[in-house]
Amino acid sequence: MDGILIIDKPTGLTSHDVVARLRRLLHERRMGHTGTLDPFATGVLVILLGRATRLAQFLSGAEKEYQAVIRLGYGTDTGDLTGKPITDGIKISIDKPASTWSDREIEDAFQSLCGEIEQVPPMYSAKKHDGRKLYELARRGEEIERKPVRVTVQTFQALRQGDELLRHNEDGTWDLTVRVVCSAGTYVRTLAESLGENLGVGAHLSELRRTRAGEFAISDAISLEQLENANEASWGTILLPPDAALGNMPFVHLSARDAQRARQGIAIPLETGMREISTNGEKVRMRDTEGNLIAVGSYDAAGQLLRPRVVLSSTD
């Protein structure tokens, strides 16, 4: 099976759990995902199968979109609802209760967190230090210095729920629903904590749902239960072709002879009609006469050649 599955990941499973479950169901060992979701998070998880796993390098950096609920009132040691509450004086201030915040004050708190910003990766994350994942160190009570990383937050905004931005909870906390569009590597829970700092209150994520990863939206996704209940004969209609992952990449159709050469890793002269491909090193989809993706090549401007870099189709 060569292609792409867009899974609506349920809460309670790690991304690795989803892959393991799909391997058993689909009887395909070559499989991987293009961006981890925490166990408590739900939404779009892009799964590559078979030869399509070779395309992971083109998808791991894709822009992401989320809808989240930020709980204002206290922080947690993980930055999300799975952690232990931090109670050292970060409850909502009596002098400035959330009920008195104006919509403008709330919206202004988002402004400094948009654009190119720096984030310090949280200890409870899969980022590695000396070969160990940070969350493994955090669970042992260790904390190490982390260098900030630069990320891009295109959109970080509050969403109204009915007539109000804030929803009051019985425990005295307040929930704020937000939309985030950001570069790969952005920690939404860190955004939540930073928003709380701007408002002068502890904060953490109580819900997180990825609604888009690159070109794949939640409307493209299927649940694990739906896939398990589907007839095996229908799996082919659910599985997207590898080409679907590279929609923004230019493409060329090769003759049968050139397609065979590309499968062998041999450079192909760029046809005169493809002059819009002009940037040296530009990535190009290479298709056979039937329109199937057989390789991803890079443009050699000096030789006006397409050099296959990642070959999906075998020579047999």
Number of helices: 8
Terminus-to-terminus distance: 17 Å
Order of helices and strands: EHEEHEEEHEEEHEEEHEEHHEHEEEE
How many structural domains are formed by the residues?
A: 3
CATH architectural group of the largest domain = 2-Layer Sandwich
State the CATH topology of the largest domain. Answer: Pseudouridine synthase
The CATH superfamily name of the largest domain is: Pseudouridine synthase
What average pLDDT do the residues reach? 87
Radius of gyration: 23 Å
- Shape call: elongated
Q: Unreliable runs, pLDDT <50, ≥5 residues? A: 89-95
Percent helix: 10-25%
Which CATH class of the largest domain is shown? Alpha Beta
Q: Beta-strand level of the residues, as a percent range? A: 25-35%
Main beta sheet, described? Answer: 10 strands, mixed
List how many beta strands DSSP finds. 19
Q: SS-based structural class?
A: alpha+beta
